Amino acid sequence: MTGVRELLRCLQLVTIAALALALGTCVSRPGLLEQIDTLGTLRVATVNSVSTYYLDADGPTGFEYDLIRDFAQKLGLRFEMIVLPDQQAVLDAIASGHAHIGVGVAVSERRRGRVRFTPPYDEADLEVVYRVYKNKPQTLADLSGDLVLPANTAVADWLRANRPDVAFTVDPQANTEELMDRVASGDLAATIANADIVAMNQRYYPKLRVAFDLEDVHQKTAWAMAGNGDGGVDDTLYNEAIAYLEETKANGRLHILRDRYFGHVKRLGFVGGHEFARQVDNRLHLWEGYFRRAADDYDLDWRLLAAIGYQESHWDKNAVSPTTVRGIMMLTRAAASDMNVTNRRDPAQSIDGGARYFIRMLKRMPEEIDQPDRTWFALAAYNVGYGHVMDARRLLEAQGRDPNLWVNLRDALPWLTQERYIAQTRYGYARGHEAAAYVGNIRAYFDILTWMTNNRTTQEPPALAEEESEGGTEVAESPSISIDSPAF
Question: Membrane topology for this entry (predicted)?
Fold first, then answer.
């Protein structure tokens, strides 16, 4: 009997062990997405730049910020932005598990050895930039030994792999935008940057020029992720990211975001940017106090009002158009009468009246138009009239396109000059091309003024001026748009 009991006991132990083993093989480790859901926060690594993520007066913004925010909302997750000094640090954060995902990362073969990239969702030319008045380089070979890049970039990886004959220096303390600043000031001969970043910075540095593009080389941008940390590869978050990015391409959301952040950056050109810089030095200080006062009174950004004023009159209080609109804000007689402006040449009255007229347009826009598009719609109405903007919206609706997006309205405004569309409108012909360009220019001026004032040291606002200075209009050669501030 004892032997039988021992045998039964052994069988029980074997059975228990087998069940435990079976249960152990059935219980799998939670997927990465499930782990993040339990944690409650998606950790997102990025760099602080004009093309990815930055803080403005209204809080966090940027192309990549909007993209990842929409993704997190789709998954029902909170997210945390981890801002790092460069993309190498972003890759380190992903590889170490400190971040779940890296956004706005330039793809290179060398980097593929460390992280997994989604299929690229953006592609841009790479441009060699130099300073005007210097000898224009024609080839990379012309720059061998003089080219400076940030450390650990995809461009540097490409040069090492494909152009070992080109000697270049890396600056571990500088990002691409800082290097472009130094090129514009004459401290460096040249650098290489994404074409979008070049276009945005040319507004601030009118002496920055493009020498040439890197032929057949494009900077591809993707999101980067790691495996699950134990040698396996968890696809849950990765697959969701790919599906989301493909969806944003298909439904037009990616195009809308690109237009919102980059669609206006080439509006000024070199001549327009240089002239704007000149007038900032010569005229803005005369009227800044009035712009600030009106902005405070009506809860607006004074730099937006200043941008409107520059587009309208180049801040010339005596400006008169062929159609007799006049003053800094170029008010018509009817608009001036509605705003109780008795003297359109009076800068204080003109700016105050222009601010109130813009507010009127802003408030009249349909509630379903969200910011920032609402502001661009109101600017178009300021230029071409509310009725014509509504006509353009109706034309969009007739074509099945969303009438509440600026990227669509910008397409539709020029239709107001075309006979086949005019018959479908209530208010008839309008110079729609001009209105579309008008908004684009103001967006560019506003961005420049925002950049300038964010770099200005703390100081008292300028006093309200009565008359424009009679001094000369020429300014000393400067590498960047400047104002009277040690920041420049």
Answer: Peripheral membrane protein
Give backbone dihedrals phi and psi of 175, rounded to 5 degrees, phi first.
Answer: -100, 180
Decide if domain 269-454 falls under CATH 1.10.10.60.
Answer: no
Bridge partners for 454 per DSSP: none
Strands (E), 185-316: 191-194, 208-225
Question: Which helix (H) or strand (E) covers residue 307, if one does?
Answer: helix 302-313
Domain boundaries, the chain: 269-454
Round to whole Å and give the CA distance between 180 and 131: 9
From CA 287, how far away is CA 352, in angstroms rounded?
Answer: 12
The separation between CA 435 and the C-alpha centre of its own chain, rounded to angstroms, equals 22
User: Given 64, 127, 177, 312, which residue is catalytic?
Assistant: 312
pLDDT tens profile 2-34: 554 554 455 454 444 444 444 344 434 457 777
What's the pLDDT at 481?
Answer: 35
pLDDT in tens, 39-62: 778 999 998 877 788 765 557 888
Q: C-alpha distances in angstroms, 116 versus 159, 172, 194, 443?
A: 22, 25, 22, 36
Q: What pLDDT was estimated at residue 153?
A: 86
d(CA 72, CA 49): 21
Let me know if 434 is a catalytic residue.
no
What is the three-state SS of 113-167? CCCEECCCCEEEEEEEEEECCCCCCCCHHHHCCCEEEECCCHHHHHHHHHCCCCC
Instruction: Say what percent of the chain tops pLDDT 90.
Output: 46
